[in-house]
């Protein structure tokens, strides 16, 4: 399984995570997905309601706002950073992210992507593409 994402978006997610330090950064990934791949078209940089280095949450109001703008697209995944840990889903992540297909995580060892398949955490290949994604910064 692949997650197709634009090169400029990967760079921006890294910068956004640096800005959020020491707290975790969060973003919502919008695009299209099927059983073979996900394609990220729009990235919403959203505030981490927890303002914590160890956890994150997104306000329901912001999720509702994004949902209203979806059109033909879907929310296909969620990004968050681990400022002090490796890019692997924590037990809390697994509990909270099951509703999202792709989990993109930036950790101290780089960016990795995972999905949950029949209760197991499976790594997804990140395919960086030379195209552009729309980036939306959602303020509180
Ligand atoms: Zn996490």
From TrEMBL:
Residue ranges constituting the JAB domain according to the UniProt record: 17-115
Keyword line: Hydrolase, Metal-binding, Metalloprotease, Protease, Zinc
Matching InterPro entries: JAB_dom_prok, VirAsm_ModProt
SUPFAM superfamilies named in the record: JAB1/MPN domain (SSF102712)
One Pfam family cited in the UniProt record for this chain: Prok-JAB
One GO BP: proteolysis
GO molecular function, one term: metalloexopeptidase activity
UniProt protein name: M67 family peptidase
Species name: Candidatus Methanodesulfokora washburnensis
Source lineage: Archaea, Thermoproteota, Candidatus Korarchaeia, Candidatus Korarchaeia incertae sedis, Candidatus Methanodesulfokora
């Amino acid at each position: 399984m692949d997650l197709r994402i634009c090169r400029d978006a990967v760079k921006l997610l890294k910068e956004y995570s640096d800005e959020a330090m020491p707290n975790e950064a969060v973003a919502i990934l919008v695009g299209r997905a099927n059983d073979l791949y996900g394609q990220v078209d729009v990235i919403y940089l959203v505030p981490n309601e927890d303002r914590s280095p160890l956890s994150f949450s997104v306000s329901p109001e912001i999720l509702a706002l994004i949902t209203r703008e979806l059109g033909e697209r879907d929310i296909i995944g969620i990004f968050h950073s681990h400022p002090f840990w490796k890019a692997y889903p924590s037990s809390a992540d697994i509990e909270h992210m099951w509703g999202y297909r792709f989990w993109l995580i930036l950790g101290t060892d780089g960016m990795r992507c995972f999905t949950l398949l029949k209760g197991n955490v499976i790594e997804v290949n990140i395919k960086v593409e030379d195209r552009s994604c729309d980036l939306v910064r959602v303020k509180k």
